[in-house]
Structures are given as structure tokens and as C-alpha cells.
From TrEMBL:
GO biological process: methylation
Superkingdom of this protein's organism: Bacteria
SUPFAM superfamilies documented for this protein: S-adenosyl-L-methionine-dependent methyltransferases (SSF53335)
GO molecular function (one): methyltransferase activity
Record bears the keyword Transferase: yes
Keywords of this entry: Methyltransferase, Transferase
Name of the protein described by the UniProt record: RsmD family RNA methyltransferase
InterPro entries: DNA_methylase_N6_adenine_CS, RNA_MeTrfase_RsmD, SAM-dependent_MTases_sf
Species in which this protein is naturally found: Winogradskyella vincentii
């Protein structure tokens, strides 16, 4: 995986093969950040990365100047890798090893962007818990955005607060916003 823009543009990051991850493709990541670039100043936002895996999305935000980034994953190896990578690049990424749903129930902090990349084989109920908890617990700032990455074969358009989806290859991003 590589960082596609910003201070660390072009840097390659190689995650250990034993991690249970599926990093967002460069094509999908570039398209997503083009959308976000037209909406936000990256140095003015806070980001929560759920099911962070390798930290791929965190590194992209950090490279573009975001200084408030929290990565949450329940896999110790993933958290360790994100910590090591963030430290080696001197990136302002904090981590929490936690079940994502428990974290969403307990946190009180609000974020500008919440990005979730759960396993693609989740059923609709597991996917629906993410926006449900984010909006029930009011975790987004006023102009905030929840982005859920999933397979293009998964349809989240029936979930509350859904605004749109964008497909890139086999990947899709569904966007959720406050009404």
C-alpha cells in the first residue's frame, strides 16, 4: 500500500502478511479523498477510523495535515502495526484496541469524519449498527460525515441517515449525514 498525496506522498507501507486485513485499494482511496478534499480542510478536522486494520486511511489523513486521528481496531497486531508506522513517520495517530461497537457506545467525543471499513462479509444487521450507534450517540460534528466502506454488492441505502454511495471497482463507500 502507498500514501497517495500530501507530505508522505509515494511512501510505501508494507503490512505483515499475518494481519487479518483488506486495505482499501489505491484507486478507491484516491477517489474518496478527491471527494473529501472538496468538502474539508484536512488540517481543521478530526477523524475516527473504525476497523482501522493497517491504518491505511489514517496515514492518508495524516499525510494531508490532519492532526486529530484515532484508529480503533480489536486486533492487537493491527494496533501494534499502526502505532509503529505512525511513530516511524512521526504521524499524530492515536490508537485504541477495542471492539468497535463497544467503543461507539462509550465514547463521548465528536468527529468531523468517521470512517468505517468493517469486514465485507458482515450481514446487513452488523453494518446497520455502525450508523445507528454513531447517530444515536451524536458522535459527528455538525458538518460531519460517516463513511462506510463495503463490497459493491452490499446495499446500505435503506439505512437511516444514508445520503449516497460511490462504487470504485469492487469497493463502495456509503455516506451518512445528519439531517
Amino acid at each position: 500500500m502507498r500514501i497517495i498525496s500530501g507530505l508522505y506522498k509515494g511512501r510505501r507501507i508494507t503490512a505483515p502478511k499475518k494481519l487479518p486485513v483488506r486495505p482499501t485499494t489505491d484507486m478507491a482511496k484516491e477517489a474518496l479523498f478527491n471527494i473529501l478534499n472538496n468538502r474539508y480542510y484536512f488540517n481543521d478536522i478530526s477523524v475516527l477510523d473504525l476497523f482501522s486494520g493497517t491504518g491505511n486511511i489514517c496515514y492518508e489523513f495524516a499525510s494531508r495535515g490532519t492532526e486529530q486521528i484515532l484508529a480503533v481496531d480489536d486486533n492487537y497486531g493491527c494496533i501494534k502495526f499502526v502505532n509503529q508506522t505512525a511513530e516511524s513517520f512521526e504521524m499524530p495517530i492515536n490508537t485504541v484496541k477495542s471492539d468497535v461497537y463497544k467503543f461507539l457506545e462509550q465514547t463521548k467525543k465528536k468527529y468531523t469524519i468517521i470512517f468505517a471499513d468493517p469486514p465485507y462479509d458482515f450481514d446487513l444487521d452488523a453494518f446497520s449498527k455502525i450508523p445507528e450507534l454513531v447517530f444515536k450517540n451524536e458522535l459527528l460534528e455538525d458538518e460531519g460525515l460517516l463513511i462506510v466502506e463495503h463490497s459493491k454488492h452490499t446495499d446500505l441505502s435503506g439505512l437511516e441517515h444514508y445520503s449516497q454511495s460511490k462504487n470504485y471497482g469492487g469497493n463502495a463507500f456509503s455516506f451518512f449525514e445528519k439531517y
